[in-house]
Each structure stands twice: as C-alpha cells, then as structure tokens.
Amino acid sequence: MKLSCGAIFVILLFFSVKLRAYEFYGSIEDEVLQCNLNESSLLNPGNRYLDSKDWNNIARVRLNVSKKLDKSEKFSMNFKTFSECGKFQTQDNKKGTFRFDESYLDWEANNSLYFLMGKKRINWGVGFFFNPVDFINPSKDAKNPVFQQEGTLMFLAEHLDEKFSLDVMGIPNYNGDYYSNKNKLAIKLRLNPSLYDFDFYYSGGNNFSDEYGFSYSVVYPNDFGMFGEAAYVKENQKNYYRILDIEKKDKYIGKALIGFNWTYKLNNKIQLEYFNNSSGYDKNEREAYFDYLNAATDYKTGELNQNYLMLSLSKREVKNVYDFELRAIYAVDDKSYMLTPSVDCRINDFFTIKLEDSIMNGSGDSEFGNNIYAGILKMTVAYNF
Amino acid sequence: MKKINILIIFLIVFIANNSFAELTGDDIVKKADAIVNRGDFICSLEMNVYKGNEITKTYKMEMFSAGLNKMLVLFDFPPRDKGRAYLKSEDKMWIYLPEVKKSMRIPEQQSFEGSDFNNHDVLEINLQENYRAEIIGEEDIDGRGAYKLELKSKTKKVIYDKIIYWISKKDFAPLKREFFSLSGRKLKTLILEKDNNLSDFRPNTYIMFNEMERDKKTIMKVSNLREYVRHDEKIFTLEYLERRR
After folding, report:
1. Is A364 exposed, middle or buried (0-12, 13-18, 19+ CB in 10 A)?
2. CA end-to-end distance (rounded Å), chain A
3. Given this model, what pLDDT does residue A145 score?
4. B65 pLDDT exceeds 50?
5. CB-based contacts of B97: which residues, under 8 Å, 6+ apart?
6. Model's pTM, two decimal places?
7. What integer is the mean pLDDT of A266-292?
8. What is the mean pLDDT of residues A265-292?
9. Chain B residues in contact with A146 (beta carbon < 8 A)
C-alpha cells in the first residue's frame, strides 16, 4: 500500500513539473520529552517500556502537497505525509516511521457533485475530545485530539445542494474494526446547517455491526455554546474477560456526548464535556480486565470507563504571544484522572514552542492509575512553512 | 410665465430641501452600509496586531462575500494557520480547524485570531438590519463634516448594545464607530480610512482600538478588491471547507 501510494506520488510529481506550480506547506518539529514510568502499571508486560530519566528526542516532519491538475481547477491531487524518528522509551527503541496520512485525487464535477478517490482522513462529529460518531477514523488518543492520524482508503461521492449534503463512502479492506478486513459503507447526511443544527451518520457493511449516530451544535446569545453526539452500535463489540465469569450482557452499545463551552472576555474559554460510553467496562468487568492483564498482551489503553468528564480552561493571546490551557479528564467510574497544563508560545510567524506536562493518577485498578507513564513532560519546537 | 418659472424653481428647491431634511438616521446608516457592502466581492485582507508601535502578529487572508449574509475567510499566512477558515452563513458562524479536520460553531464575541476585532466585527457587516439609528448631532472627523448617530440594538442577538457612528455628510462614507456594552461602557473604537489614491468611497483600512488595553490596536487592510464577482454557492458551505485541507 505504502509502495503503491509512493509510486503514484512520484508519477504525479513528475507530470506536475510540466504543469503549474503546486502548493507546499507543513512543519518540522523537534520534541524532547521525559517520561516518568508508572512502576505499578499492569500495562507494561515484560517491561517493554523502560524507566529512564534521560530526555528523549523525537523529530517529526509533516509535508503537505496539493496541486490543481487542470485550468478550471476542478481536478486536484493531494498528499499529506508524516514521518517521525528518534529515541523512544521502549526496549526495541522503535525505528522511524514514514507514512502517507492522505493521498487522493478529487474532482468537482459540478456545483453539486464531488468525487474523491484515495486515502483520506475523515473525522465526523462536533466534540473536541470525545467523538462517539467518529466512525471512520476514530481518534487513536482522545487525550490528544490534534495528534495526526492516518487516513482511510475510500471512494467518496458527495452531493451538495441548498437543502442538504450527502456523503457516501465505499471503504475497501477497512481494518479499523474488531472483526475483519471487509468492505464498509459509510454515509453522512447534513441538513442545511444555516437552518438546522443536526448531522446524521451511518456506517456498516458485511461483517460489520451497523453504527448510527447524530451530532448537534448550537450557539446561544452571550457566547454560550452547546454540542452533543450520540451513537448506537448494533452489536456489542466489547471484549469480555472470563476470569470472573462475566457474560456478555448488552446486545448493543450506546455512546453519548454532551458538551458546553463559554467564551468570555474575547480570549478566555471554558469547555466541559460529559461522555457516556457503554463500550467501557463496569466495575466487575474492569476488575476482570485487570486480572486478565497479568496473562495477556491485548490490552486497551483508552475509554476503559463508562463515564468521563473533561474540563478545559484556556486563556489565549496572553501578551499576544502565549496560549495557556489547563485540561482535566476525569474517569468517573474508577476516579482516576489526567491533568495537562500547557503553554503555547509563538516566537514569530514561523516558529512555535509548546510546553506540556501530563500527570496521570488513580488507584491500581483504574484507567489513568494504570497508565504506563505517571507523567510526561515535553517541549516541542516547530518550524511551520 | 416668469412667475410660474419662479414658482417651479421654488417648488424644486423646497422638495429637494425637504427630502434631505427628512433623511433619518436609519436612511443614513443604510446608505453607509451600501457603500461597504456592494454586491458580491473577493478581496485580500492583511491584519496586523500591534502592541504599542510594534507588530506582534500578521495574518493574510482571502475574503469572499455574497450579499449580506454569506462570508468566507480563508487563511494563507502565517503558515501555522494555513487552511484555517471562518464561515458565516445567515446568522451562524463556524471555524474550520484543519489540524482536527472539524468545523465548529463559534460565538460572535470571540476574538478573531487574538486581534482587537471579534468574529462579529469581521463577519457581520449589516448594521441597518440589527440597529435603530438616530441622528444626535454633526461633528467634524479629520476635517470632514459628519453625521453623528446613535445606534441602539433592535435584537438581543447583537453583541454591542449601542454604537456611536460618524458618517460623512458628503458621500455617506463610514468614518468612525464607537462600540458600547449593555452597561454603557465603551469597549472599542473603529476608525475607517481609505487611501487617497482610491477613487472609491469605500474604506480600505480598518483600525480597531481596544479600550480595555489602550496600548493595543489592530489594523486590517483591504486590497485586491474585485466586485460583482459571481461566486459558486458551494464555497459558502462546510463541505467546501472540509474538502480543502
């Protein structure tokens, strides 16, 4: 897959030299981080992660290239690459990564029809941290929603008119599910957002459980905003661990998010999200899961609980340079939490520095209390071009 | 015959005088709005945020406008914000964040990229619809005779309760606005200027002073204005934003 994407990229690049200039943008980042290993974590079988007080260094390059291929600018090619290398805090000291997060061709057939073919990252939903309806490219880490993800190979057809838009996606060899690498169909219906505040979503196909969802967002006077998402998954895909003889109870899974934000004094924002997640474990299931972990390696690291609260307090543009944020994610069921203060500094139009400290805490059988790291301190310097 | 001619001239002068005398505050604001909003247009915007005399941030954008209720702002500079976009459609506003690939509803009062403008100042340009205007005097602004008007909000959906607005008597060009909160506190002052080499009445430089932080100001400059452009309706949709990056 990577080879074929690379080959397409090189061929198109070769031909594009003869056409008009293409657009480049991206960033080069250097991240230094120190991780404080959680000695009591059950999620570190074989001590794969090492306790090192050394600073680790990771370099990342993101390069995005796009180009209109015809004079009427209806046909275009787009590539987003991500590469990463450096010292990681694992025994195997993971080698570098290079991947195409996106590589696709698209065509605006007319004002109402649009087609896309290739690898594209699609994120559905209106929540910032938790996204129950993000069926196609669900976030790999809800704690870090900005973290760039790899897209999904698809054929997309979009119809757009004054009343609604309809996206239909055929996804071959979808492997983001527990079951198999079969084809998947995904549909999004958006009613005219000037009049309505709802979007509707569906995803399913052979060997996939059907997923239905909707999202909602509204802004009231005095800059008070409310948003929500709800998802219904027709089959329960939860892993049940049998040490405590727990039987599969629920036939389906429901997930819901409700969030509020309030902007005041121009640059200050408070955001609160409540996430109910029936694919998480209840108390007995969680105990069984942690017992099972002593003998297993297929552990999950996120959304282990059924109820979460997220609170974000941010103050932007302090002295026109700094953005401060304090984010707290609280797992209501096991009473563990993650606290992340950060400061983002714009040195000039091209360079930024970000300092972030994540602190995780909780009991030995809790989600954040069992995180591999009890704390991660990192500084990222980025050059944007 | 001579008497009839004198009578006709007298009548014309009387009617003309009377029609100007009957110009209400709302009429004047309507004429000023019409100068700023003339049909569909595309323009480039450069926004500089100042602290004292030093520029702390520069943004470059493309603005697309269709009528009074549709507007799109696409960011081109700085590189970190490339691909970011603001969209207004009817009375709703969104921001598109390419790093998370999401369009999110935004409130009007939120600062526009940390500048002294807020989203409402940039994306909402239709004063006559939301305010009732009354002439409260006449003053000179930089040597130009101007109507001084008090605009009171008609609805609760606007973020300024009161605006004091100076509009040129000669050509109805907007010259200056002062924005007030519900409590009567002055929040911001906007100076609207135009380059002397422009034949147009339309201001091309917007200078916003923040009364809370007196050493701060933001200057937004309009260039490459192309009027009466026929836009594809699709560019004012979330789908268009989400396709781009």
Report:
1. exposed
2. 28
3. 57
4. yes
5. B84, B103, B104
6. 0.86
7. 87
8. 87
9. 99-100
